[in-house]
Design a protein that fits this description.
Blueprint: H1 2-31, H2 33-36, H3 45-50, H4 58-62, H5 66-75, E1 77-79, E2 82-85, H6 93-104
Antiparallel strand pairs: 1-2
């Protein structure tokens, strides 16, 4: 009985993790891929125009913390008065954290 309960808990947990991963990918595709590209390389018309960094590059990923990535997604990114990235106001904190985790999967 204990094994069955443990197995059930594990399955439910994994389903929840997969659900967050799927949601994070969907949120990324809707709000980020236009500039950052579906693969995170920034090789899009807008990405090239804005000088978006390649998120698959390990050095690029090493230069920003999860906290910085979270803040950029939540609050956006500005260069003086110029908005470089709009904030994702419709995402909750746990959705932003899941997206940061998703972006980390781009690292090669």
């Amino acid at each position: 009985m204990k094994r069955l309960l443990a197995l059930t808990v594990a399955i439910v947990t994994l389903a929840g993790i997969n659900s967050h991963a799927d949601e994070a990918k969907d949120n990324y595709d809707k709000g980020c891929a236009k500039c950052h590209g579906a693969d995170g390389k920034g090789d899009t018309k807008m990405g090239k125009k804005m000088g978006i960094k390649d998120l698959t590059d390990a050095k690029v990923q090493a230069n920003f913390t999860d906290e910085k990535a979270f803040k950029a997604i939540k609050e956006g990114v500005k260069d003086g008065e110029k908005t470089l990235m709009k904030p994702s106001e419709d995402l909750k904190d746990d959705q932003i954290k899941a997206m940061v985790t998703y972006v980390r999967t781009f690292k090669k």
